[in-house]
Design a protein that fits this description.
Layout: H1 5-19, H2 25-35, H3 37-61, H4 105-141, H5 143-157, H6 161-180, H7 185-215, H8 219-226, H9 231-239, H10 244-267, H11 279-286, H12 294-322
Length: 329
C-alpha cells in the first residue's frame, strides 16, 4: 500500500524544515570567523601572547626564565659586549643576552609582555566601563543630559593624550610613589592605566551612544518602559546585551594602541624604567646598541610588532564578522 499524495507532500515539507535550521548570531559569527584564516591565525597568536604573559610570573618563580639576574660571564665582564655571534644567541638564550649586564633578553621580553599587556588591558577595561555608562546614559536620556555629556566627551577629546602623559608623569608618579610607599614601577603602571583609561573612554562613549540612539526606539525598550522598568533595568538589562558586539570590536582595536602607547612612553623615559622589563624600557636601552648589537633591538622590536599586529588583525576580523552588511561571498 503506497502513501497518499497528501502524506508524501507532508513528508517533503518536514524534510525541508529539518534541513533549514535557524542559527543564532553567535553561530553565524563563529562560522564567519572560522572561514577567515587570517583572523584565526591572529586569534591564535593573541591567545599565545596572553597565555605567555599570564604565565610569566610563575615561570620566573620556577626559574624557567630569569629576567633580572646579571651574568657577567656571558658578556666578558660587566659593561662588555655579549660573547658569541649575534648578541650571544644560543640554545640557552634564544634572543641573546643584554649588553653590559648579560641578562637574558628572551626572559626580559616575556616579563615585559606581562607588564605591557597588564597596563593595556586595565586601561581598556577602565575606558570600557566609563565609556559604556556615559554612552548609555547620553543616548537614552537625550535632551540636556545628552548635550552636556556630549560636550564633556568633546572636552576630553580636545586634550592631546601623549602630551598630557608626558606633562603629568613626574608630578603624578611622585605623588603615587609617596602614597603607596613603593618603588616607581607600581606608581608608573597605575599612572599609565589611569591616564590612558581616562583619555580612552570618550571613543567608547561615542560608539555606545550611537548604538543606543538606534535601539531606544525599538519595541523591547518601549515594552520595558510601559511595564514600569526603571532606568537601571533599561540600561543594563535591555540595552547592554545588544552593545557587546561594537564594544568587543573596538576593545580589540584599541588594545594594540595602548600597548604601543606604553612602549612609546617607556622609550621616551616617561613610563616604566629599567631594570623592570617592559617593551618601552627594553627598546629604550637597546637603541644605544642598534649598530654594535642589532639583535638586542631586533628581537624585542619584532616581538612588539607581532603582538600589535595580532590584535589589529583580530580586531579587523571581528569587525567584519559582526557586520551584517559586509560582503562575505
Amino acid at each position: 500500500m503506497t502513501d497518499s499524495p497528501a502524506v508524501e507532500g507532508h513528508n517533503d515539507v518536514g524534510l525541508l524544515s529539518a534541513s533549514i535550521q535557524g542559527r543564532t548570531p553567535w553561530q553565524i559569527t563563529r562560522a564567519r570567523l572560522t572561514r577567515d584564516r587570517v583572523t584565526m591565525v591572529a586569534f591564535g597568536a593573541a591567545v599565545f601572547f596572553v597565555l605567555l604573559a599570564v604565565s610569566a610570573p610563575l615561570l620566573t618563580q620556577l626559574k624557567v626564565i630569569d629576567p633580572y639576574n646579571l651574568h657577567p660571564d656571558l658578556v666578558g665582564g660587566l659593561g662588555s659586549m655579549p660573547l658569541g655571534p649575534f648578541g650571544g644567541v644560543s640554545l640557552q638564550h634564544w634572543m641573546g643576552v643584554e649588553p653590559g649586564t648579560g641578562r637574558d633578553i628572551f626572559s626580559r621580553v616575556v616579563a615585559g609582555l606581562t607588564v605591557s599587556l597588564t597596563v593595556a588591558t586595565l586601561a581598556v577595561l577602565l575606558s570600557v566601563i566609563i565609556g559604556t555608562i556615559v554612552g548609555i546614559i547620553a543616548g537614552t536620556a537625550g535632551g540636556r543630559a545628552d548635550w552636556f555629556l556630549s560636550r564633556v566627551v568633546d572636552f576630553v577629546l580636545s586634550f592631546p593624550q601623549t602630551l598630557m602623559l608626558i606633562a603629568l608623569s613626574t608630578i603624578v608618579i611622585d605623588a603615587l610613589q609617596a602614597w603607596l610607599n613603593t618603588d616607581r614601577t607600581v606608581p608608573s603602571m597605575v599612572f599609565m592605566i589611569l591616564v590612558m583609561g581616562f583619555f580612552g573612554w570618550p571613543y567608547f562613549a561615542r560608539i555606545v551612544r550611537g548604538q543606543v540612539l538606534s535601539l531606544r526606539e525599538r519595541e523591547f525598550v518601549e515594552a520595558a518602559q510601559s511595564l514600569g522598568a526603571g532606568r537601571a533595568r533599561i540600561y543594563f538589562t535591555e540595552l547592554l546585551p545588544h552593545l557587546w558586539a561594537p564594544i568587543l570590536v573596538y576593545t580589540t582595536l584599541i588594545m594594540p594602541q595602548n600597548i604601543a602607547t606604553e612602549a612609546a612612553l617607556g622609550f621616551l623615559g616617561v613610563g616604566i624604567q629599567s631594570p623592570t622589563p617592559s617593551f618601552g624600557s627594553i627598546l629604550n636601552d637597546s637603541v644605544h646598541y642598534a649598530t654594535s648589537d642589532p639583535a638586542y633591538f631586533i628581537f624585542p622590536g619584532v616581538t612588539l610588532f607581532l603582538v600589535v599586529l595580532s590584535f589589529n588583525l583580530l580586531g579587523d576580523g571581528l569587525r567584519d564578522a559582526l557586520d551584517p552588511k559586509a560582503d562575505r561571498q
